[in-house]
Amino acid sequence: MQTWVINMILLSLICHGCFAGAIKIMMNAEAKKRGKAKAG
Amino acid sequence: MSEIKKGGDTFASRWGLMCTILGMAVGTGNIWRFPREVAKNNGGAFIIACFIAIFLWAVPLITAESIFGKKTRMANAGAFKVLLGDNMTWMGAFCGMCCIMIGAYYGVVLGWVMKYIALIATGFLGQVASAPDGVALTTEVWNNFAMTATREVDPVPAWQAAYWFWGAIVIACLIIYRGVQGGLEIANKIMIPAVFILLIVLVGRVVMLPKAVDGLEYMFHIEWGDFLKPRMWLAAFTQAAWSTGAGWGMFHVFFVYSAKDEDVQLNAFTVAFGDTSAAMLAAMVVLPAVYALAPDPAAVMSSGANGLTFINLTNLFAHTPGGLLMAAFFFLALFSAALSSLIAMIELGCRNLMDMGFTRTKGTLLTGAYFLIFGTFSALNNNVFENQDMVWGVGLLVVGLCYAYGAWKYGIDKLWDEDINPCSDMHVKWMWTSLYLFPLLFLFVWGWWMYDAATWYPGEWYKFWPITKYVYTPGAMVAEWGIMFAILIALNNAMARRLIHANKIED
């Protein structure tokens, strides 16, 4: 595989991955909060 | 969410807040600036430098702003008054005014985009496709629309651009008038996913063009020697500052409406990378399209924001199978991105006025009127537009310094312990304490811009009048900031007395 293709995959993974990962953490936190509210 | 509106405005959900701050951040800086900067700075190394700049510049500043808003429940001027004392109200007001001055000319860009959406809807691309020289036609249309005041022969004010600008401001004010949940939140919940979807569809279409792969190869090739070039780092930090909107004071205003347990650090991280994701997608549309369709890609990429978007891309779309749809998608993405940023700037003005006791209706009307008056000068004469872009664009770096100073004065560690860490799901302290580095980074970025601007006007760098002649001089920047500082310092006590209306919310 050409170097620029590897770079493209890596840089896209870092950038979009950080974005998606942060949203995932946020969704988990919200779900936990909702769970607590229901239990409470 | 745990927060229910009782007397104060809040966002209905965390997703609403996230879309709104993403809407503020994702703007023309992503769609037409980032691709040009990637092209100018030789691709991959610049992208990596941008990632580093996000951690060192954008995330700490966005966190600082957000915590100012969340802690005080007041916009820029009020928050500086509460946290740093009555005597510092002017500093917060400067942060707000700088952003408002930008909003005034930013609306002009939205007007241009609206005009081009109307042109595309009325068959302009067909005329370009059948013209013997497409670029000549798109250049002529652009110059006759927005550049009439700066042409050498028979210069006249660009009234057409002004009419479209007024339309843009009216649309933005109507959204703000509807309030936080009914206007801002709904508009951004529609526009921000739309920007991402439109860009993803465009990437899918553009990469299928022959030779598009050359654009991707240029974008993602890395020359390691580039990391030794200070100018590339300057471009990366400038891009991180201007594109994410870190230190503009707008995140501050939206966190006035946030829930009490809102995680400011995670939000700052999300919005910084969300903004960069949009920028990467835009570059993966623009660069491959230019490499696939333009005979001289380098010339197209160096034709400036207006030249690239309104002249060259319009011409390229006209000569591409399915180009009408591509152009419609591209300009709609640009429209959504620009409108979502403009409404954030109007909300900033409105919230500052509401802290002084004005109603939302009066706040919106007064801010809208201010935008109309100052923005019209930029719409009528492109040299005024360029001057305002330079003066207040570089001024934003100063605003970032004001926030870093405010956080340092209040206590960077204290803010972490009291406000950021207890509500955080990330708990990454260095991503906040890197704010200690900010003065050094500021000196590098701001100092270089001032030095660069001085070299463009040998022997005349200190001159500022007329601004249509001394468009980019350090003299013009210092003079305009100085006038603003003087007015706000003179009004300091009067503002401090009126700033007593925080957006109190209850559980």
Concise description?
The complex is a heterodimer of chains A (40) and B (507). Chain A is mostly helical and 40 residues long.
Protein architecture, described:
The complex is a heterodimer of chains A (about 40) and B (about 500). Chain A contains one helix and no strands. Chain A has about 40 residues and is mainly α. With about 500 residues, chain B is an all-alpha fold. Chain B has one domain (about 15-75, about 105-350, about 395-455): Amino acid/polyamine transporter I (Up-down Bundle). Chain B has 23 helices and no strands. Chain B is globular, with a radius of gyration of 22 Å. Chains A and B meet through helix 1 of A and helix 3, helix 10 and helix 13 of B.
What attributes does this structure have?
heterodimer, A: 40 residues, mainly alpha, 1 helix, 0% strand, rod-shaped, B: 507 residues, Amino acid/polyamine transporter I, disordered N terminus
List the helices and strands and how they pair.
The complex is a heterodimer of chains A (40) and B (507).
Chain A: H1 3-39
Chain B: H1 14-25, H2 28-40, H3 44-72, H4 76-84, H5 89-121, H6 124-130, H7 134-146, H8 159-177, H9 180-206, H10 212-220, H11 230-244, H12 250-254, H13 264-293, H14 297-301, H15 304-318, H16 323-355, H17 360-380, H18 382-410, H19 412-420, H20 430-433, H21 438-455, H22 474-490, H23 492-498
Helix pairs in contact in B: 1-9, 1-13, 1-16, 2-11, 2-13, 3-4, 3-11, 3-13, 3-18, 4-5, 5-8, 5-16, 5-17, 5-18, 5-22, 6-7, 6-15, 7-15, 8-9, 8-16, 8-17, 9-13, 9-16, 10-13, 15-16, 16-17, 17-18, 18-21, 18-22
